[in-house]
Each structure stands twice: as C-alpha cells, then as structure tokens.
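[Q] Does anyone have a clean structure-token version of this?
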Amino acid sequence: MATIFAFVKLFEKKEHAEDFVSGKLFMNTIKSFKEYRDESGELRGDDHEGIIAMYQPSQLGDITFGEISIPSSELASPIVVHGDHLLSQNVFCLYSLNSRGHESISADTIKEFKTTLELHKSCFGLGKYCVVVINVTEFIDRCKIAIETLELQGSWGLVDYFNEHEFHGSMPEDSLGYQKRSMFREQREYRIKIDTRQKNPNYYILDVGDLSDITMLTTPEEFNEKIELKLPDGTSA
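[A] Here you go.
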C-alpha cells in the first residue's frame, strides 16, 4: 500500500486557495469534469470521467441494431460506457505525494524519488497558487467527520490509472469514480467523493472546519524548490 506524505491543491485565484485553508472544499460533479474543455492545457477536463466500462473494438464481435449490423473492425475508437448516478456525484481532487512505484528508497534512488514527489510541470496549468496539506491523516479524519455529520455517503482514496488502448471490460465496482486514463498519471490524484443526492446535481461546498493549522499556502514553483529528502544515513536530495 502506498504511503501518502502530503497533499497539494492548486488554485488559479488566491481567494479560492484561502477558502480551502478556511475549510471550504469546493466539490464539482464528476459530470462537470467530463464536460469541461481545457483551453490552456490545464488537463482539468476528461470526457472519460464517470466511466464504468470500456470495450476495445478488437475484442468485440459485430454490433447489431435491429436489422443493422456494424462490424467491430469499423469502429474508430473504444466504446466507453458512463454511469449517470456516478456522474452526479461530487469530488474534491488533490495532488498526492505518495510512494507508488517506489517500494524502497536508497542513496541510488533518492533523487529519482524526489522527482516523483515534485509537482509535474504538466500540473502547473492548474493554478499559480497551491495549498499544501502537511498532515494527511488529520485532514482525512476531518473530512470523514464532516461527511458523517451530514449523513452523506462518501469515500476517499487514490486514483488508479489505466491504459486506454488496452483496457477492456467493466471497471472494478468498488473503485468507480477513481479510474482515469494513463495520460493523467502525472497528477497522482487523490479524491474525496460524496453522493449529495441533490435533485439537480451541482457543485457542493463541504465545510470541514478551519485547516490553517495543517496547511500552508505557497506556489507550485516554490513548493518544488523547497522539497528536501533525507535518509537515515544522511544521504539527501
């Protein structure tokens, strides 16, 4: 199981970053990310959000609609199936500094590991301000308490990344909403997902209480500059 050292949330506006520090988690619907169209390479939008299954043409037989038959060889791309109920749920997305892909760290691999933890340049388009959550356990606990107090159905965890050119079949039932294409893997995303049961699904603000004691406000560039790792033997990067 991966160890999570910290969370980072990027914001375009400083006031939005300050709202997060005050404990207000602005949660968009999964559908909003499916329909969002990136304009500046920020990689917020993903038309595969809310996916529950994907079928590769090479592994399908002919598709029939009444008397019309379409050979799978004529399909231009995989068939993607979305779940309406899943699309209506709300998520709060964070960049996670985690140990995935690194079971152990040594003097030979510490620099590579540090690079893994740094915010990838592809994420810089997500905002010029970032809030660092320095106590992951406490943050998750406060989110859990807020969700339970409101009697909402919620879940949380790391996002898994799949190869969209190879995956075929249904997504695991217990991780729906936590699956993204491999093109997004540099975001190393962690999600908090809730079902607000709103009649007309829209954004939702989850108030988890003041977070100023476990967060710090900085910039993506400054964050990367200040990351420092040190092993017990004194090796650092």
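[Q] Thanks! Anything notable?
[A] DSSP finds six helices and 15 strands in the chain.
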